[in-house]
């Protein structure tokens, strides 16, 4: 049973922390798939537990949302705040992510097809091991999270500043035309990346399970995923709905 505003005493708080600790861990490990290896999962979990305590103290059943939904938002928000405070994506990492994307684009223009690992590494004047390490470091450095568009009180940034007559970015992302463009882009990925994306996003397999199927390590799956996401971001970042 979710907490109410009258039961957030010390005993109740400890009980809810124990009950929802697995939720904190689940959210932390989900975020870790999008973050560079320099981020420690224990740091995310610690921040998430503080978010959970905040949720216990603030929750009001009268608002309509169930506690787990509300707590998930607070937990994720606390983790994102901690990441921002730690400056987890340094300028150098962001620059590396842009360099990879630009190298992919230049090679695609010249080759007329998606380039492979060795070709991207050569374009960047790196050996293959250094390129793979760069992928690890840049993983998730340029992702934009839905929660980042909300302030500490849960008010949407777009509610204050967006053109009310224009479709919002999430309307566009959710639209069938964008979904179609994304599906076509995924089909255009190299076979290994396409298979990985299908197993991860459609079959809900984790990186360890996918690595076992594909016969490579979990860290290699992280690299392949980062490379696939970078390709898709490059292909779709200029997408606009047809008139």
Structural features, described:
The model is unreliable at 3-8 and 142-166 (pLDDT under 50). The chain is elongated and about 65 Å long. The chain is mostly helical. The chain folds into two domains: 10-86, Orthogonal Bundle (Rna Polymerase Sigma Factor, Chain: A), CATH 1.10.1740; 91-143 and 175-236, Up-down Bundle (Butyryl-CoA Dehydrogenase, subunit A, domain 3), CATH 1.20.140. 67% of the residues lie in helices and 0% in strands.
Distance between the termini: 49 Å
Q: According to CATH, what is the class of the largest domain?
A: Mainly Alpha
What is the CATH architecture assignment of the largest domain?
Up-down Bundle
Shape: elongated
Total helix count?
A: 12
Can you summarize the main beta sheet?
A: none
Total DSSP E strands: 0
CATH topology of the largest domain: Butyryl-CoA Dehydrogenase, subunit A, domain 3
Low-confidence stretches: 3-8, 142-166
Classify the beta-strand content into a percent band: under 5%
Average pLDDT score: 77
